[in-house]
Amino acid sequence: QAPESFPPLRNEAAVRVLRGRMKGIQGHCNSCYMDAALFSLFSCTSVLDSMLFKPFPLCDRNVQSILRDEIVNPLRKDGFVNARSVMHLREQLTEKGRCSSFTNAEKDPEEFLNLIMQYILGIEPLLKLQSGGRKEQDCYCYQIFMDKQEDLVVPDVQQLVEHSFLSSNLKLVEIPSCFIIQMPRFGKDYKMFSKIIPSLELDITDLLLNSPRECCLCGDVATLECS
């Protein structure tokens, strides 16, 4: 365990610490969904570090300390987390959660995030969405759903998010402090896209509800939107 706290890895330090054999989070017993989620959330960004330190009203401090001291700090310090540490977290989630199979079965990342953010740590939802003018929905992450697009062979994240929001008639009610996006998931035999290019920046201008935008014809503030 690493008792101190370490900042997220950036630039050359990220390459030096995270590249090579025996790097990342070691997988064991269908843990890939959790390994990938934890690596994405904490290895190179501090946007969710409040999960590690903040004493939320409903926060389980034991789970918080396991997450911080056995997973995130070793990942940032040495670039490696062994499977025992992740299993320790999975055992705690099984004990305190609503599902008995967190230690052996593969789960959807959204199920894991909802459990640890809402029920274990008591964090407020990160996203507010509205669909077709109906009531707002609160959630912690957004999973991309979309039909096959023939013109998208090797898409980037920006394209996938825009297509998904458009097809579902969704809007962001406000700018999120953190926008966790789950890529399209399919089985071993079929994948909609063989590759997805990461978008290093995400433009959410057209995804925001009631956001003032420029008319593409005259340049004034737009009053109508064509999907």
Automatic annotation (TrEMBL):
InterPro entries: Papain-like_cys_pep_sf, Peptidase_C19_UCH, USP_CS. The keyword Transmembrane helix does not apply. GO terms for molecular function: cysteine-type deubiquitinase activity. One of its GO terms (cellular component) is microtubule. It is found in: Cytoplasm, Cytoskeleton, Spindle. GO terms for biological process: protein deubiquitination. Keywords: Cytoplasm, Hydrolase, Microtubule. Residues 24-202 form the Peptidase C19 ubiquitin carboxyl-terminal hydrolase domain. This is Ubiquitin carboxyl-terminal hydrolase CYLD.
